[in-house]
Amino acid sequence: MKHGTELCNWCQGLAGRAARKRPAAALLVAKRPAAFEGGDGALDRIAAALERLAEARTSPPQVAGSSLVVPQILQPVTAAIEAADSAGEVATALGTPPGHSKRGVVFALVHGVLSVACPESELDGLDVALQGGAAPQRRADKFFKKHEHICTIALWSGVSIATVVQSLARSLRHSADLRARHGNRFLEQLAELWGSIVDQL
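-> C-alpha cells emitted (201 positions)
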C-alpha cells in the first residue's frame, strides 16, 4: 500500500524487522548532506553527536523514569534532536534539506520521537499545541483505542502519514498516561517508518 510517495516497511509486510537489525548510527553518518560542508555550528554539533553515537554502538536507551525504550534505529534521530536548536536543523542533518520530498515526514518523525522520549523539551519550528476538532480526535481514537497502525490510519483517513504522526505526537506530549500505555508502540512504528525513509535518502 502506498501513501502518496511514502512506503513503509509495515505496509510491505516486513514489520520493520530488517530495518531494526541494521546498525543504527551508521545509517546517517555516511549520508551527511552537503550542508555540513558549510561549517554551520548547529549542524557541526549534530554531526559530532552522530559520530560519537556511531563509535559508541550503544544499546537502545530507556527514557529516564519510565519503561519507554527508544528503538536502536531511532538513536541517530534522538542524538540529532539533543544537539539541535530547531526542527529544521534536525531535518537537514538527517538528510532532508529544505525542498527535499521527505522533509515533511521527517519533521513529523522528529516531533513524534521528541513527544515521547523528552516531552518537556521543545524545538523551534514544531507546533506542539493540542488540536481541536473531530478529525484529530478520530485519528487519536483509532491509534489509542482501536490500536490501528499509523499507516492504516493514514490510508483510510485520506491524509499523509506525516499528518497522522504530528497529530498523535501532540496528544502524547500532553498526556503522561498515553505515553506510558502507548509510547513504546508509537516509537516502534516510527522506527519502521524511519527505516523505510532512510533507504530512500
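DSSP finds ten helices and no strands in the chain.
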